Amino acid sequence: MKKVYTYIVFSIFFVQILGAQKAELTIDVFFNKALDYHYVNKDSAYYYYEKTIKLADQQNNLDYLVNSFQYLINANGKYYDLKNFSINLQREDSLLSFDKRFSTYPYIQYYKDYLLFEKGHYHFKTKEYTISKDYFNKLQNKIIAKPKNNLSKDDIATLSSIYAFLGSIYKLTSKN
Question: Are residues 159 and 140 in contact, defined by beta-carbon separation less than 8 angstroms?
Answer without folding.
Answer: yes
